[in-house]
Fold each of these.
Amino acid sequence: MKEERQVLVIFPHPDDEAFGVSGTMAAHIANGTPVTYACLTLGEMARNVGNPPIATRESLPDIRKKELQEAADAIGLNDLRMMGFRDKTLEFLAPGVLKSVVEDLIEELNPSLVISFYPGYSVHPDHDATGEAVTEALADIPKEKRPTFYALGITLENPDIVYSVKEFTEQKLDALRAHYSQFGANNPEREEKYRSGDRDLVERLENERFFHFKFADD
Amino acid sequence: MEPITVTRVQELIDTFAQKDIYLHLETTNGAYASHFDQSFFSASAYIRNAHINYKQGKITGPGPYRVGLELEIGWVYGEGLTHFELNEDGELILAGLNQDGKIAVALELSNQPFRK
């Protein structure tokens, strides 16, 4: 894994980080690289409230806030930012609002690597809106100063970068477990399958995949 | 939240009648419905903090339940409701949880605005 000056991760929902990026984040932190995770919403509109229900639409945000903090702790992250937007509304924000949030973070942190979603290939409208804002903000930075952008593309195949994060799988499982309201029902089965060596799950958990985003002038 | 008791929920609906109150109403299939099943036509609606005043309201059906509220100039209704709670802020939360326990519909009433 390439050593970075500062990593900036931007996702819209608590738990977006857990499956695809928590191992990479833990690895950078273990390297001594500062990692910032800006989470745009609290996932207020999630449909999972536990079964039997442990939350309501109104109590879910506070629960997910706590879960996000616990996941961050599991990864060893000490710069978690909750940005205060509302789940499922990002694509409807006034033009430029999210872009300037990204610009402010980049200005403050001067990251060498930004991780977010690949716009147009990330299924959830919030994912695509986030990726779009990141892309727009980065495109305006002169090429020589522009941070690298590693994007997660849910519907894209053949990633450019595949990191083995095997060493950090336990932290990753802890992060997944932290998002109890969302993954609680599936976690025990997933962990059991992983520990019994289910090939597909081992492959998916122990590796994280990114697309190196190319800008028009790259 | 607990499974709906019709008499209790009817009492609560009555306590919010003929007052200026705030409504949260949503239906949802989840943002991934059409991703997992391309033949699925995903549609949903969401309104948060509509300021309404209803003349009378009713819960009906054998369960899952339906709730309708009659306004001076219109109507509000929701169907598929299974669970309820009067929370610590005095908000009436009605939700419909599907077979997997996921929210499919929510209809909520409050005397003060819900958090944006």
Note: The helical segments of chain B are 6-16, 33-36.
Amino acid sequence: MNPFATRSTGYQWIWPTSAMALVLGVMLTMAWITAQTRQSRFSELPTDVRDRLNAASLDFQGEYFKVQQELKSLRESFGELREENTKLQNAVADQTKSSQLLNESLQEVKTFAGLTEVEGPGLMITLRDAKNAPEGLGDYAVIHDIDVLKVVNELWNAGAEAISVNDLRVGPHTNFRCVGSVILVDRVQIASPVVIRAIGDPKTLEGALDLPLGVLAEIRQVEPTMVKLERVENMRMPGFAGSTKPKFMKAVPPKG
Amino acid sequence: MIFIPLIALFVGIALGLLFNQPLPGIAGTYLALACVAGLDSVLGGVRSALESKFDSEILVTGFVSNTLIAFGLGYLGDQIGLNLFLASALVLGGRIFTNLSVIRRYGITRLRDARARREMLNQDAAPGPKP
């Protein structure tokens, strides 16, 4: 005989089991509602964003989107303030010859650092996620942060003078990161299609990117339509809108 | 009397619908596993009642420990990059099948007993040649 068995008679099992069934009912409904909510929120997103998000992380994404919007508007006002700064510098410089010279070199440095709006000829590269990727190539069919980084690096190498990614100017501190499945440029979220624009000699830039076994060859192998190159006669790009205030470094005064 | 657990289940579902609150983040994923553990426990309770060895303490501790172990395994799996959720779901799912099949066997046995008893009673009642 089973020593653990205790004989019970009648219906004494009913109430504990019923209580458990009650809890089970609540849990089942909650799980169902959770799954439903996720699914419905998920389906309202555009396809390219949906591909990049995994359903479970959506709840955190909601908060994140809000902060991102705030960041975007702050960056816009930053750009306006910097423009005003340039105007004021020009106004001050109008007064004397020496200050005019000083201002010229200042503006030159600002342009070099990518703090001003610039225009010129160049190349426009559009990277987008593959639409009909071959089976089993899921991860390769998506544009990653490393792809953007490689293209930007190659463009600098080919003599580009100014680069922007989805209208975010690439400045001295610009970084490309991947958080979850979204690309971050200086912590601003971007999604496919990624439009990289570079000012420089269009022919040289295109040649550098078209090199066999070059940075784009791998992406093109997955699907040729993932990459589009366009030469542009003249285009404008905004200035770098991030902070430029150093926290730790100090300039060393020249000797002598 | 035996329909009370079923009624309780529907009351629970109604309460959940009334509450209508999705769980955020990873807790939602874990809740699904808790559901499977709960289903296993309730069916286990019914089964043990049919086997006349029902023990409410075993039922309740079984439910709590199963849920905790499932959570723990799931968490561990998340940490070491192996989907151990699957292991819990598989074992609990298998137990649900076992419990249901035992309950089915008990039901069938009870039906057959009843039928046999009725036939015997009919035979007794039937007028026939007495030995």
Note: Chain B has a mean pLDDT of 85.
Amino acid sequence: MTENMWTEEELDRAIADQPAGPVFTAEARERALARMVAAGEAPRPVKRWLVAAAAVTLVAGALVAVPALWSDDSGPAASATETLRRAAAATTGQTRPSAGQYQYVVTHSWDLGSATTGAGNPISALFHSVREQWIPADRSAEWLERRATLDRRWLVGSDEQAKTEGDGGLLQEDTSTKERRGPCGDYPDVNEELGGDPDWGKPCAERVGNWGNLNPRFLSSLPTSPQALYDRLWSDSMGHAETALSNAAGVLASPEASPELRSALYQALQNLPDFQVTEATANLNGQVGTALGVHGDVNRYDIIIDPETGRYIGTRWVLLKPGTDMWEGLPAGTVVSFSAVDFAVVDRAGDEPPTK
Amino acid sequence: MTVISSSSRDGVPPPPDESSGVLETLEGEDFTALFTRHADELHRYLARWVPMAADDLVADVFVSAIRTRARFDSSRGSVRAWLFGIATNLLHTHLRGRRREREAYARAVQSHESDSHEGRVVDSVDAQVKARQFAVAVERLKQRDRDVLLLIGWAGLDTTEVAQVLGIPVGTVRSRFHRVRQQLRAACPTIVLENNDD
């Protein structure tokens, strides 16, 4: 390892050597163009385009779960409408902190990493990390966040292969716990002064929130009439089914969402175009639920819910085709990422709730 | 092409209510030409940041552009800078809710072949390790610094265009760019990567 400063050339090379990202396929390009044209022709896009998959969230009762690595796409046992209707009828809310207490939110994530060994072979693994947050009942007070990387699970390759052939930089993991504190969730290494979000720089109580940055004010502003809520969700998601589903999943994963809002959201999602049951009994390490998803070109984005209790289990990201590029060597059906979130109320920042 | 022709601002003003507006043919043609010219470079830029969302974000950029075309002011910068500005703002919003995607992709270090057959493997591994160190260091940058670095380094914008994108003086772009490069040159080698290829 070099201890000295990099040269300008080394830095330029490292910038250039960053993964280029997936190509803009002709199909994706056509869809993007069509969306633009539709936006220019109508108040709302009438075309509803499915999109590529996104990051994945799983809300689970167990704090630590091993991901199910495959989705069998076995098809629906019940319609999406029926599944969502049952979930809407059964849903409940989360326990909220009283004054002086903290909302504890823990997220266990499994994210794909891939590289090429020194011998030219693709290797990939799911990396398991944990993020804990303590959010005070008074959101303007100081929040605490801890992050750590835990372990990994190989999808293609092994520790032995990485050791023998070289890991291509894949296996670096700083396993130390990182801790950050800041009022209103403004941690010190986050800079948001570059516009784009009207809340940036505002006092905590004045922030209106949005789908990507949920807060009680935003959540309470959402309609609880299912149709009105769907109209708002669809409009704010600019007619993207996956974006709408992702935004909805964020609300379902929020401990601050009321039971009424959750129920309305399940009903609202009945209107989501091409939203289908994709697996009747999706098993995420014992967290069994019904998967409903939208298909993209390469991936499928699923949410998983328990229709009998209304509990939102999570979301996942499933590869639809044999992998290329960063998914090289992965067969279709591979669950390439997910995370698990759980909530509790604790008395002090830094306290962890008893294991369930 | 007279981009986003002046028709969208001068000759044919956009409808007062965007939500009820119908584009004139000329405007539609202009935007189609804009898409043809800039969609690919926007995608390349966005795909490095948020590979899974790049397709949609490119569409979002043009949807936003066509809906807010009245706000474009050619005296403040080029159409290219305007589009990258929209892309940057959409990217910020996207990343706030989906930071993990970028973090995950930062791990995805691809191989890069060297011209030297003899040293290909060694060079490739070294380049991958450095690229990974860089990715980790970039994740730790402040957003404002990261924008400047990557709008220049990845998008290929010049400092004047970046100033237009970010709405800051060009001198600030230059000083910020210099500072962040120095910062990275110092920080990257200190990031210890676990090497299993000993």
Note: Chain B touches chain A through 93 residues (CB under 8 Å).
Amino acid sequence: MLKDIKISNKQAIYININMVIATGWLSAPAIIAEKAKQDAWISLLTAILLSIPIAWITSRLSSLYPGKTLIEYLEDILGLWPGKILAFFYLLWFIHITSIMFREYSEFLTDVFMPETPLVVFPVVATLVIAYAVTKGLEVLARTLEVFFPWIILSILVLFLLLIPEMDINRLLPVFETNAVDIFKGSLVPMGWMTEIFTFAMFIPFLNKPQQSLKVTIASTILVGLNFLLHVAGSLLVFGASISSMMYPVLNAARLISVSKFIQRPEPIIMAIWIAGGLIKIAVFYFVIVFGMAQWLRLKDYRPLVLPVGVILIALSVIVANNTIDISIFLAHVWPFYSLLLFQFGIPVMLLMIALIKRKILPKS
Amino acid sequence: MAIIGVLFAFSIIIWLQAPSLVQKKMWRELVVFSVLLLIGMIISIPQALGMQVPSPNDLIVTLFKPFAEWMKQ
């Protein structure tokens, strides 16, 4: 089940970048600016610096247990039963965050483009496509992303080039008006997104050169950070600190684009990036869930689990929150601690410490 | 009405997956498949009938309340 899948470093970097930015880029600038005001870009730089250690831990853990995914090395590090129990919580967590992604994905589409369509339609239609892709495996997802990714990045760059006439550097002033605590609070939110890189621990064994995983994780983290910086700084330069009261600042900025009354309102580009990136992001996590579950229960094949997990994800995405505001309050106030204290920061640090101590002690005894 | 669609979807999924699992004698996979599908039914059928189902977010929000308070300040 494992050995027939191989992805290249480039594909891995694409997956990692898309895995983090695809759902974050529209709403994250507003959530960061809510705390850090016009210093949101400083928060983001802090977040990049603080996320790099996690990128290092992700790759270090996999190099201590070569060829094993997160679910497998949990058992090696903690012993059979504690490992199984923690792996169970990781799977639950993956299911939970994937259902939140599904909800964000469909909320944006109903909010902005198709207000008359019932919410449940989007996850159902998306699952039909994604489930098929997941059945075909990670390699197919990686290649699909290889086709779309350059277009996603190109579209983002074009949007920002077109916005340059609307930008004003004075909107970033005064610098450091907010205090350090608020800037730090602002950096926790993008960190919650950027440390999603830890999910890469499920793919490192699929790399065709796993010994280069450190390069891949560090490069992905920095590129993700730069991408976020583009969105945060871009929307700040256009609107100033008032983005904190917006739902999707990048979308609002795009609506301002008007180049000699010829190129106007390029929102369909935003929708296209959102759908392409969002679907592949969800597909990657969906794959992590079914594949992890198959490894956790020592099954021969993960494919029979794809459709039932899809049903669970659709059903959860509908009940997970009442409305868009619920989701963004959750993402702003609870999500950073939920992900950082536990699954994306706390537990990985603890695992690495136990693994290194075990390494030191075991050969002697 | 929604319930008919949901039940139809579940029948399609069983029809697509179960026979091939039985044929290949993948009993372990069949058990996991059934358990997951059952969980899916438990979450989705009450929704289709218009009942209120508690959100997993509620639990997480309660657990992380002190941090959320600090974040809101």
Note: The beta strands of chain A are 258-259, 263-264.
